[in-house]
Amino acid sequence: MLEEIAEVVEVHSDFILVSSSRLSACNACQASANCGQRSLAGLFGNKSILFKLENPERLSVAVGQFVVLGLHEHALLKSSVVMYLIPLLFLIISAVAATLLNLSEGLIIVSGLAALLLGFVVARKLSVKLLSNPNYTPRLLRIAQ
Length: 145
Hints:
Blueprint: E1 2-11, E2 15-21, H1 36-44, E3 48-54, E4 66-71, H2 73-100, H3 105-131, E5 139-143
Antiparallel strand pairs: 1-2, 1-4, 2-3, 4-5
Helix pairs in contact: 2-3
């Protein structure tokens, strides 16, 4: 299970609201001082994300405390496949099919872009389905020490 530490922002009777920072992998790299990727990541800043989490174990948490969130590895892997691979496959299949039909280069590009957009629509519909499954949402594991 993948774990992340987040700060409690609000506490309610049946759920809590937590904030987690989006950190670049560059923060842990030893070569970050001389890396262009770090400079590029720094342009966008480290934004925080708010999560609404159920508190089924009724852990007594307070605003300002840090908690550990968990997400199953297979959930991250399947979500990545849905969001990246499906649109890419739509693009490639469309471009190959248009090439086999001997379409002009401009039509190959247009069909590829249209298929890519269709792939994003399909990925969005699948991701909404995944979000309704509790195995694909972060869960509150414990209070951070």
